[in-house]
Design goal:
Layout: E1 11-13, E2 16-24, E3 30-38, E4 44-51, E5 60-66, E6 76-77, E7 85-93, E8 99-107, E9 110-121, E10 132-135, E11 141-144, E12 150-151, E13 157-165, E14 178-184, E15 192-195, E16 202-209, E17 215-221, E18 226-232, E19 242-247, E20 254-257, E21 263-268, E22 277-279, E23 286-287, E24 290-291, E25 297-299, E26 317-322, E27 331-336, E28 355-362, E29 368-374, E30 378-384
Antiparallel strand pairs: 1-2, 2-30, 3-4, 4-5, 5-6, 7-8, 8-9, 9-10, 11-13, 12-13, 13-14, 14-15, 16-17, 17-18, 18-19, 20-21, 21-26, 22-25, 23-24, 26-27, 28-29, 29-30
Length: 391
């Protein structure tokens, strides 16, 4: 890898002393879908998936921790299924102090076969118990996670999920995916399923308190047009998602509530309107455990209305602040810029230049931490103060 050193050391950025950054990478060609979480012992944990290529069974979950010395620990593999691709890790520190690791497991590139698994650690992620299936796939499709569990003041747990709906013909491509919330009132022992109305095309539901006693959810859009928003008073019943002023490129976003009441958001400020070429499928053709290259990238018109759009630029990586519960986002600043080329999922050739799948968290010292995919070759971690976003 050229252009950066993936040694996990957090260093100040020349010319921008308010910003520090590090690169994390395991011994795999591909790294993607980071998730940050403060650990019970005060360290910062980061999980992501890595392997040869998304969709292959050598894709597993990796974990590292940031110590007080400002250095990320050597990444360790914390999952290993020789038959399924394990993706989208989500860390959650339960009120009991136990660290939950949730992730998905699917056959090949078929997200409509995915199930959600969970493994629990009682020693701050040093070890994890054997995983169990939390949400199985069904005859109609798979289920995915991407965003963290939210614990309400009442003690209720909310786990946002999205359903990868199996089409009547052909392979899954995301056209009919929908969102739902799993609700638990017994600390995750049992869950109830509540669909988000009129949510077709809305995925990666991300729930945060809006500051007025209500809850806000933001969504990635399969149509690669705009970020969508929904609201709730109890976490169970949600309004139908509506468009916001912010673009979306059918790639992940994340929003977090800051201690001062503001919301901080990380997203790609791009959409299908910025795309001059598109990927016809999320994955190259997968034949068993092998990948083939059927030249699936096609230039030309946008997808038909209502269908998923793949291949819009995954850049820039932009941060935004809201002081009114997510109704407006007047402060915006690019954290990283580039062309966001993502028309290939092949990391061994180093042609992917996406800046994507951000994760945000604020630590006890008030610093904002952002982790995101850097060219699918590493996870980039940036530490800064929230007001850096306002310039």
């Amino acid at each position: 890898m050229s252009g950066f050193v993936s040694d996990g050391v957090l260093r100040p950025v020349p010319g921008d002393p308010a910003r520090h950054e590090a690169f994390l990478a395991g011994p795999t060609p591909q790294c993607h879908a980071a998730n940050l979480m403060p650990l019970p012992n005060g360290e910062l944990g980061c999980a992501w998936f890595g392997g040869t290529q998304e969709g292959l069974p050598d894709i597993n979950i990796w974990f590292s921790r940031l110590g007080a010395d400002g250095v990320w620990s050597e990444p360790v593999r914390v999952s290993s299924d020789a038959r399924r691709s394990e993706q989208n890790p989500v860390l959650f520190t339960a009120p009991s102090g136990r660290l939950w690791l949730l992730y998905t497991a699917q056959r090949s590139g078929d997200q409509d076969t995915a199930e959600v698994r969970v493994a629990v650690s009682t020693d701050n992620g040093e070890t994890f118990a054997a995983p169990r299936t939390l949400v199985p796939a069904t005859d109609t499709g798979g289920v995915f996670v991407r965003q963290p569990i939210v614990v309400l003041d009442s003690g209720r747990w909310l786990l946002p999920v999205f359903h990868c709906v199996r089409p009547q013909r052909g392979r899954w491509r995301g056209d009919d995916d929908t969102s739902a919330v799993l609700v638990s009132d017994d600390e995750g022992a049992t869950w109830r399923h509540h669909a988000v109305p009129d949510s077709t095309g809305c995925v990666h539901m991300n729930i945060v308190p809006a500051g007025d006693g209500t809850l806000l959810a933001l969504f990635r859009r399969r149509q690669a047009d705009v970020i969508a928003a929904s609201r709730s008073t109890d976490g169970v019943h949600w309004s139908a998602p509506v468009a916001t002023e912010l673009p979306n490129n059918n790639s992940s976003i994340q929003v977090t509530a800051l201690r001062d009441g503001r919301l901080a958001l990380a997203y790609n400020a791009s959409s299908a309107a910025d795309a001059t070429a598109r990927r016809a499928s999320l994955y190259d053709e997968i034949d068993g455990d092998r990948l083939t290259d059927p030249a699936k990238v096609t230039a030309g018109p946008e997808a038909e209305p209502g269908t998923a759009f793949w291949g819009a630029p995954r850049a820039p990586m932009t941060l935004a602040l809201s002081a009114d519960g997510g109704r407006t986002w007047p402060s915006r600043r690019d954290l990283e810029t580039g062309d966001g080329y993502c028309l290939t999922n092949n990391s061994t050739e180093g042609r992917n230049r996406e800046l994507s799948y951000p994760s945000l968290t604020q630590t006890a010292d008030g610093d904002l931490h952002v982790a995101f995919t850097y060219f699918r070759q590493a996870i980039k971690h940036v530490r800064l103060r929230p007001d850096w976003i306002a310039g």
